[in-house]
## 1
Amino acid sequence: MKIIIDIFFTFLKIGAFSFGGGYAMIPFIEKETVHINGWLTSMEFVDIIAISQMTPGPIAVNSSTFAGYKIAKIYGSIAGTTGVVLISFVLMTILSKSLNSVKDSPTVKNIFKGIRPAVLGLILSAALSVGKTAIIDLKSFLISTFVFIAIMKLKIHPILTIVISGVIGYIVY
Amino acid sequence: MKKLFKLFIIFFKIGAFTFGGGYAMIPLIEEEIVRVNKWVDQDEFLDAIALAQSIPGILAVNTATYIGYKIYGLPGAIFATLGAVLPSFFIILIIVMYFTETMRSPGVQRVFMGIRPAVVALILTAVFKLKKGIPRNAFTYILVFGSFLLVAILGVHPIFIIILSGTLGYFIYRRV
């Protein structure tokens, strides 16, 4: 029982202190699970990250579920996942509630007018950082180009393009 | 109740098909929440991303919580968050129990060689779809490319970009 509580609070801390999500959390999770608590070996941690990147969903959720299971089976994975999500869930709910009451003030409107284009820049930089490891040859460049056209011009659902690209990847590589 | 269930299903679907973490979820949420169901518009969606980025935690989950709350209050926030989290929870659980070896097989690796470049394109489409509500002026272009360069080249943390751009927005739009 104690280990379950430890897992919960460790991941609660990870969720509460990592800004920027996903990849920013990885070193933090490693430090806590491998170095401080000694729950996992370095090799197990490498496996966790590799598999988290290959499965859908947020990397932080994947790795907390995975690490939780390795440490204390199913209860560990429930404790880890709940812990990693809880603090931001509470913060986000409070934030949405308080923002709702001020969203029509001119000051808040002007602030968001400045933030919106900057968020586009953030998304653009995310595309670049994923692109660096994903677009490695002509084939991957073509897949990327076709998916872009398929969504923007042919209005194909993004999920369908992921499935098709997976099949193409299997065939061409 | 029907809306809550729909909210859950939509985020479950998004959670089940997003490879590549946080930002990869944005184009899928945009498709379902903004374009198909029209529950929030492009501007509100960008605001949700900015807020999700401003607090600690997982970007995609935070965005789901915010949108769920906006559409249906606290129950909406709970259902959307569960929807976004549960697919990866179950998928990882099944993999760690039975398929750790399978994930290392060359066949699986090849599938991912195809999916990764698709994710890049997906994220790019989000930029083009979400720019609709934003006024086209010099200030906008400076903010888009300024924040891109600061993050991509200089490695500035996104939270500083949001604080900086919000401050700039306040001072510049106050005059007009």
## 2
Amino acid sequence: MSRAKAVVKLNGEETLANAAGLKKRLLSALKKKKDVAVDGSKVSLIDGAALQVLVAAKKSALAKGQGLSVTNPSPALCRLLTLTELDGIFGL
Amino acid sequence: MSNQLSDDLIKIFMEEANELVAEMETDLVALEEDPSESSLVDKIFRAAHTIKGGSGIVGLDDVSRFTHLMEDLLGRVRSHELTVGSELVSTLLGAVDVLKSLLASAENPSSGGVSRGLEEATEALKAFMEHQSGPGASVRGPKPAEPEPDLEPAPQAPKGPETFEVNLRFAPSVMADGTDPLDVLLELHGMGEVEGLVTDTSRVPSLEELDPSQFYISWFFQIAVERGSSALEEAFMFLSEGHPIKFESTAPAEASAPEDEPRKLGEILVDEGMVGPEEVDEALVKQKPKPLGELLVEEGRISEEELSVALDKQSKERQGQQKAASVRVEATKLDQLLNLVGEIVINQTRIAQLSREYFSADGHELLNALGDLDRITRQLQDNVMKVRMVPIGSLFHRFHRVVRDLAQSCGRQVRLAISGEETELDKTMVEVLGDPLTHMLRNSIDHGIEPPEERQASGKDPVGTISMEAYYREGNVIVDVRDDGRGLDSRSILAKARQQGLASPNEEPPEEQVFGYIFEPGFSTAQKVTGLSGRGVGMDVVRRNIEDLRGAIEVQTWPGQGTLFRIRLPLTLAIIEGMVVRLGQEKFIIPLLSIIESVRPNDSNFRKVGGEGEIIRWRDELLPLVRLAEVLQMASGNGNLMDAICIIVEGDGKRAALLLDEIEGQQQVVIKSIDHHYRKVDGVTGATMLGSGEVALILDVPGILKQVMAKSKASRP
């Protein structure tokens, strides 16, 4: 597997309203057979639905032997992942 | 919000709210009997809270404000600032009444403006809360003269942090109403110190399979909160029901999980003796990222098989818990379904008839298949009918309140004993039975049960008992209402009957007949109109209501010991066993329940009397002969009386012989109302379709007899 990563950039607001879109973007990134980097630098609001999409993506990536990590998390995202103790699985 | 949507929402809210209000009422009365039952307080509180939330969503602000007050008051009871007493229960029952009328006027805005009593009830609730002593105040409320003030502050519940284990797990559809599960977690997080949080993502599917609108993440953690469990519960209040959220105190005294909760995997493993509790605890510490079972297997403490056995048990226990779940269905939808099934039954019979005609010799297979279809259709019909059946308990429990109020207002002490609540009968019947049963209770309390002193003087328990019992017997549902009061007084009933011209002055009718007078219109022995009974709405209405349901009521009494009213009802309203009879070209159905037997008129049993009347001797009775053709104003096909046939029928205790042309056979018929499409026809209860596709009218035997008797009375000089 190449070192280069497929990057998915999270929006400022990732919620139920655009969770389907996030799922699509992550799916197509996973199809590239590369590790996926989820850029969380812009996130100011994220809800349970979006968090779950990330978790599901991580599961799919693991199943396919690909990596998936969160990079540059914004303070909001960082706080949330720490609070839910999910920071570990996203490589933070 | 579109109008349609908001209408639908209001409808759903109303249904739910009315149910909750009824429950509140029952629970309040039960609470009065057992003030220590804190689970009832919790339940009533939750009901108020749910109504508050729902009314807010549908925009019924006054309901929302009012229930908020109730909730506040109940909250203080929950936190032991107030104790339960009959004054508190009365105030809350009063509030429930106001709530009912608020809901009723919201449901039907044209029925009238502001609900009566709203202001008083609001004041009463507020007064209750103001009276309770504030922190530091050690005196009772401002009514020291009262012998037993309700407002005595309860012993202070111990304060300080309390640790709870919370299993925050949602129904997958949680986000549908805009709830963000993460918000719930964050809110809890803000309420106290959270420790040991584990995010369980094991149920989240892979990204490919994930439906982003469903939620599968759950959390497990310990939280220390200041106020006790109610604070946590309140945090979950705004979630609609159906989320398997659990929280329990870790304090040993309060760590009693309800018994019906499914056991945790660790508990099952320990209970089954597969591992010791220490091993589970050890594994729990390490569990964080992995399910407990896997971890124990990994460490070689249990085998894969043992794990799967235990997991299987766990899932069964979980399923068991979900069994009680039900779906709310509109009654009209069920009616439509039942109607359609009725059509299937009719058509099925029709096809069977036709095929017997066409394939008389070599159609065995077809006939067999039709036989199967017949069996299946009837099963389907039975099942659909069962959907309409509801337990009578919901109706019975309503009467706790009725009995309490009535007993209080007539100075009686009455206990209501209920049994057979699980007995099921048609939903419509349960609805219609409410009024007659209420009236019967009124009668029993007002006329039957004696005042406490009188009871004591005659060596009885000063507290009277009224029992309501429901059970099945011989294809009927029986509802017994029994009191241990003074019993019916046949002499005063007879005197009253004579006064009203129901019995002639020198007539001495048998007791049975005397007791029958109480079901006559306008009959009341009450000396004064008490607001309870004697308002002219009497037992005749009770009897009519019950007869409308094709049921019957009878009374038995034991002087000084009590009275029993027995109501007998058919299991269902929609289908009857009927006799198909022919009159001229028309076919009719006579309900089998009304038929005694059939006889052929001949020279020896038939007589003409007084020029007009005709009678027939049947056994030792002389019965009026009713020419059905005349009653129904149609031309009879049969001129010769001796070729016709008589069916002896009974209704309302009266008997007669119906003269018609031919009996065709017995059949189950589905009753279809014709009132909606045509108009109410005297002597006819409805119509049905026969197997041949013909329409037949179903005869109303009591109605026909009444009509005939009235006519013969009128024609008498």
